Structures are given as structure tokens and as C-alpha cells.
Write a sequence for this structure.
């Protein structure tokens, strides 16, 4: 493999929202959507990139809705953690169907369906050529799956966290509401915090800043974006440095 075709990043954590697995209705798990996401992961896996995926649960459960109805925040968050495991199993199935060896790990113990999340085991799986789907958030309520992605990224010594969204980066305001919104090609961690970027949890950005772990925010539905990102080409918004 020549230098031009060598990925810039050796090991990545890909953060996906639960909605990435939802169909047109915006909720539930759509096998076709799962298959599409699996093919995108395989496209970078085939380049020799080690991949861990952290997935959310917004397609199955919105904890804030339960809280609005009087549910305990801790209960609502634990339900969300369990829902991420369902998404992880669906993604594992889609990946295995196209020949990608995959392991699901969870911070919420359920040994009959997934491995417990163990940092060194996750690293070992990736070194052996397996995709690791990390579920269960951080295992604690009050933390988002964005924060879980930042935490796992540091734990497994990832080179970058890639946040796959429905927009092609970080904008000055919501581009769906403001057609004049400007996209940032690059942001410092401090500016990302100052602008309170809505595509990434601020706790996650702060963790990445403290440990100098770069973040890339991109449109996961762009067929080329994920490949371009791991190859080091300009895509989406890069959040790093000062």
C-alpha cells in the first residue's frame, strides 16, 4: 500500500446516533439502514483501519420524554443504556452478514447477549481484525453516549473520534433552520465549547480537549465522507488543538 493510499488514522472510534439505524419513520430498527451503515464501516475496515463503534439509542428510547412525565432520570438513562445494546446487536448482525467479524461489548452486564466491556479485550479484538461495537454508554446514568465515545476513545488509544451525523459538520447555527449558516472546516476545542456545538456533547468535547484526542464531525450518509476522514482528507469539521 503506497503512502497516498495509507489511512491517516490507524484506530478510530465511530460515534453513531441510534437514529442511524432507524427507517424513514425515524424510530425503530430498519434492517436496510443497518445494512447501509455496516457497508460504510466495512469500507474503512477493508483499508486496515481498526474500528470501534459507540452507538446511541434515540431510535428506541428518548429518556428526556420519560423524565418530562415524572420518571427518574437514573431510570430513564438505564433504559437508554439497555436500548443501545439492542442497536449494537442489530449492527453486529448486519456486519457479520457481510463478512466482518464483530463483537458487542456492553457496560451494562448482560452476559447472555454481549461481552462485558473490558478495555484490554476491546483492544485485543481490534488488533485481531474485529470490529467492536461498544454499548451501554458509560454504564452510569447522567452521561450521554457522546461522553461514552470520548471515554472509550481514550481508553482504547484511538487516534480520532468520528461523529457521524445527518449534517456535514459544525455550523454557526442550525443549517436546517438558517440557510445562511456557515460551516466550520476546523475548530479548536475551546471554540467548540464556546459555540456550544449541538452535534457533540460538551462534556465529550472537554474530555477530548484534556487528552488531545481529535474529533471529526461529518455526514455519515455521504458515501465518501467516512473514507475521506480516515485517509486524512478535508471533510466535515475537525475539532482539535487551540
Amino acid at each position: 500500500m503506497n503512502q497516498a493510499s495509507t489511512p491517516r488514522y490507524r484506530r478510530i472510534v465511530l460515534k453513531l446516533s441510534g437514529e442511524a439505524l432507524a427507517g424513514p419513520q425515524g424510530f425503530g430498527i430498519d434492517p436496510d439502514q443497518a445494512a447501509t451503515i455496516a457497508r460504510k464501516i466495512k469500507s474503512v475496515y477493508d483499508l486496515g483501519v481498526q474500528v470501534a463503534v459507540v452507538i446511541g439509542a434515540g431510535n428506541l428510547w428518548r429518556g428526556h420524554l420519560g423524565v418530562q412525565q415524572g420518571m427518574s432520570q437514573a431510570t430513564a438513562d438505564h433504559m437508554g443504556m439497555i436500548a443501545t445494546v439492542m442497536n449494537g446487536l442489530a449492527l453486529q448482525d448486519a456486519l457479520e452478514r457481510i463478512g466482518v467479524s464483530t463483537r458487542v461489548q456492553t457496560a451494562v452486564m448482560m452476559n447472555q447477549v454481549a461481552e462485558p466491556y473490558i478495555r484490554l479485550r476491546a483492544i485485543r479484538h481490534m488488533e485481531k481484525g474485529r470490529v467492536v461495537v461498544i454499548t451501554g454508554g458509560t454504564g452510569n446514568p447522567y452521561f450521554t453516549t457522546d461522553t461514552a465515545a470520548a471515554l472509550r476513545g481514550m481508553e482504547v488509544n484511538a487516534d480520532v473520534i468520528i461523529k457521524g451525523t445527518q449534517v456535514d459538520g459544525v455550523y454557526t447555527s442550525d443549517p436546517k433552520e438558517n440557510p445562511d449558516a456557515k460551516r466550520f472546516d476546523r475548530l479548536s476545542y475551546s471554540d467548540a465549547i464556546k459555540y456550544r456545538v449541538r452535534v457533540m456533547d460538551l462534556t465529550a468535547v472537554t474530555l477530548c480537549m484534556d487528552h488531545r484526542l481529535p474529533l471529526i464531525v461529518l455526514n455519515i450518509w455521504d458515501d465518501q465522507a467516512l473514507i475521506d476522514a480516515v485517509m486524512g482528507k478535508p471533510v466535515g469539521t475537525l475539532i482539535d488543538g487551540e
In short: The chain has one domain: 3-239. The mean pLDDT is 93. The radius of gyration is 17 Å.
